[in-house]
Design a protein that fits this description.
Elements (H helix, E strand, L loop, with lengths): L46 H14 L3 H21 L12
Keywords: Membrane, Transmembrane, Transmembrane helix
Organism: Aquimarina brevivitae
Protein name: Riboflavin synthase subunit beta
């Protein structure tokens, strides 16, 4: 049945006329920018295996500096949003 099978993309193999192959590959090859750094690209299999490898890659390559930077940016954006809507920030301080 053609409903459950997905069509494969056609390969584009253009070789320029005046180009010398020095072993670095075709300059017209279309690849994603981060394919060389990711382990989940190009593998065939079911969706569960792809999800498991992507999850393992995410767990193994965490960077604390990036996570901390994202949290700081998020906190600053929240404070700017609260300032724009005139939220009363005095509820976070204790009265004595």
């Amino acid at each position: 049945m053609g409903i459950f099978k997905t069509r494969k993309n056609k390969k584009y193999s253009y070789t320029p006329r005046y180009w010398e192959n020095n072993g670095e590959g075709s300059p017209y090859q279309i690849t994603h920018k981060f394919d060389q750094y990711r382990s989940t690209v190009g593998k065939t299999g079911n969706i569960k295996d792809r999800f498991v490898t992507a999850w393992d890659e995410l767990k193994g390559q965490s960077d604390r500096r990036v996570n901390r930077r994202i949290l700081v940016i998020f906190a600053v954006l929240v404070l700017i949003f609260l300032f724009l809507i005139d939220f009363d920030l005095s509820i976070f301080t204790s009265r004595r």
